[in-house]
Specification:
heterodimer; A: mainly alpha; Arc Repressor Mutant, subunit A; B: FAD/NAD(P)-binding domain; FAD/NAD(P)-binding domain; 5-stranded parallel sheet; 24 strands
């Protein structure tokens, strides 16, 4: 499993690029992961989503679906895709340092 | 006298009524089942209607025929479930109380969730095949269609029977070939998933099938809206795909009564314990079939395996015993691949669909993830098994838990 040095910390990722331990996360780490997945800058709205996702993960043990995200965070789907183009649930989970949301079969 | 109330008389609810009626003492238990629709639909048959293989009359029978005579049947809509008061209100004014509740209210399609989908173009140039109305409207449309761009698109996951839209693509390739029109029809499969299917090995295999059949694949397309006038499917990212006819699997959601009763998640699916099928938030409520929020497939085979586990757990619950963590997410699905052939996949929560052989006494072995004629016959025979054995809760020669025997990694 790859270990990368981000924002001065050694962070372990799984083979799909999700952080192994969400407790290693901080905002500086988030910015570096975001840059790697094609989002050069994170603004306040990005962090609203990321913090909501981390809270949902800590409460439920899994990241939220896009529907749960829009319904509960109040951010419209359209904006979510503008903030995290091409699959916000997965991309935001990577940047939020939580595991890949449980897919459906 | 104790009361068991079953909500929903589809595949899952009907099986539970039959199985529990057979084992509960009639002098101790009153069983009631509620459904608003008097007609039972053989939903796996909807896929074949657009291609003229089945007609409406091949997929419907009265629900009453499949329910045991000792069970009370209420044909009425459900207004509200009050799990704390252990009461259910029906839209015919009746209020039913229960000691135990089984929720089998299923799921349905919601084209109105996608902007532009459910207007005038619905069942004119945009069709579903998850309702008997959609499937028969599409059969009528295909009869005189001269050809063009056929786009098949599941809008978002989860959907009932996740292989059905792929089967639709394979059957369309076969049918338009038979009609001598295949050269005039572009078939385009557009999916929100990263590939043809959810799991890697099956996704690769089924992706190869799409290639070989000259079906164009667009993956990771998150449908945001439809422009029915310009005939465009538009993603949340702003990508556009042109169609002449759109075959959609709209957003699937659980029953509205689940939302009204405050028992569901964001898509009205009921939070359910993964291995026991008990409702997460209620001690005397069980959930099975398409109504659960479980990460297993929403399919009749899954409901069938769950019904075996739930029968055991219901008997344990009323006896005050701990529940058996027996449900492993097992699903078993024939995939029609066109030209009289089919595939079979068999998998659970932990083991993705693998190639190999699937043994079945009397009928098998079937080949897994590999085309064969016997898989097609298995699929076509299944309608008889469904009406005569499965719904009536008869024992089938297939275990509820998945077995690795015959599978090759």
């Amino acid at each position: 499993m790859p270990v990368l040095e981000l924002a001065g910390k050694n962070i372990t990722f799984n083979d799909e690029g999700f952080m192994e331990d969400h407790k290693q996360w901080d905002e500086a780490v988030a910015r570096e992961i975001a840059a790697k997945v094609g989002i050069p800058e994170l603004n306040e709205r990005h962090f609203t989503v990321l913090n909501y996702m981390r809270k949902a993960y800590e409460e439920n043990g899994t990241g939220p679906s896009i529907r749960a995200l829009t319904k509960q965070s109040g951010i419209p789907t359209k904006e979510l895709y503008e903030l995290f183009p091409k699959g916000p649930a997965k991309k935001a989970a990577r940047i939020a340092g939580i595991p890949k949301p449980q897919g459906c079969i | 006298m104790k009361r068991l109330l079953i909500l929903g008389a589809g595949t899952a609810g009907t099986m539970m009524a039959n199985k529990l009626h057979a084992v509960l003492e009639p002098k101790d238990w009153e069983i009631t089942i509620v459904d608003e629709d008097e007609t039972h639909y053989y939903q796996p048959g909807f896929l074949f209607i657009p291609f003229g293989i089945y007609q409406k009359r091949d997929v419907i029978k009265p629900k009453r025929n499949f329910l045991p005579s000792g069970v009370n049947v209420e044909f009425a809509g459900i207004d509200l479930i009050e799990p704390d008061a252990q009461k259910v209100s029906l839209n015919n004014g009746k209020k039913l109380s229960y000691d135990y509740l089984i929720v089998a209210t299923g799921c349905g399609i919601h084209p109105e969730e996608t902007e532009g989908m459910s207007g005038d173009a619905w069942h004119e140039t945009i069709f579903d095949f998850y309702t008997v109305e959609g499937a028969t409207a599409l059969a009528r449309f295909f009869k005189t269609w001269e050809g063009g761009n056929l786009v098949i698109n599941p809008v978002e996951m989860p959907i009932k029977c996740p292989v059905a839209p792929l089967e639709f693509a394979f059957l369309a390739d076969w049918w338009f070939t038979e009609q001598g029109k295949r050269d005039k029809v572009e078939i385009h499969y557009v999916t929100p998933l990263p590939g043809a299917f959810t799991k890697p090995i099956a996704s690769d295999k089924l992706g190869d099938f799409l290639d070989r059949k000259n079906i164009h694949l667009t993956s990771e397309f998150a449908t945001g809206s439809v422009d029915p006038d310009k005939k465009k499917l538009i993603s949340w990212d702003g990508d556009e795909i042109d169609y002449d006819v759109l075959v959609t699997v709209p957003t699937n959601a659980g029953s509205a009564v689940i939302e009204r009763s405050g028992m569901g998640d964001e898509l009205n699916f009921v939070p359910t314990e993964k291995h026991t099928l008990k409702a997460k938030n209620y001690e005397n409520v069980f959930v099975l079939g398409d109504a659960t929020n479980l990460p297993s497939s929403k399919a009749g085979s899954v409901a069938h395996f769950q019904a075996d586990i739930l029968t055991e757990n219901f008997l344990r619950a009323i006896d005050g015993l701990p529940l058996h963590e027996g449900f492993d997410g097992h699903a078993n699905c024939f995939i029609e691949s066109g030209f009289g052939k089919g595939l079979l996949i068999d998998f659970n929560y932990d083991v993705e669909p693998l190639p190999g052989k699937f043994p079945l006494p009397g009928a098998g072995p079937f080949s897994l993830l590999e085309e064969s004629k016997i898989n097609h016959y298995g699929k076509m025979m299944f309608r008889w098994v469904y009406w005569h054995l499965l719904l009536r809760g008869a024992e089938l020669p297939i275990e509820p838990q998945m077995n690795l025997y015959g599978k090759v990694r």
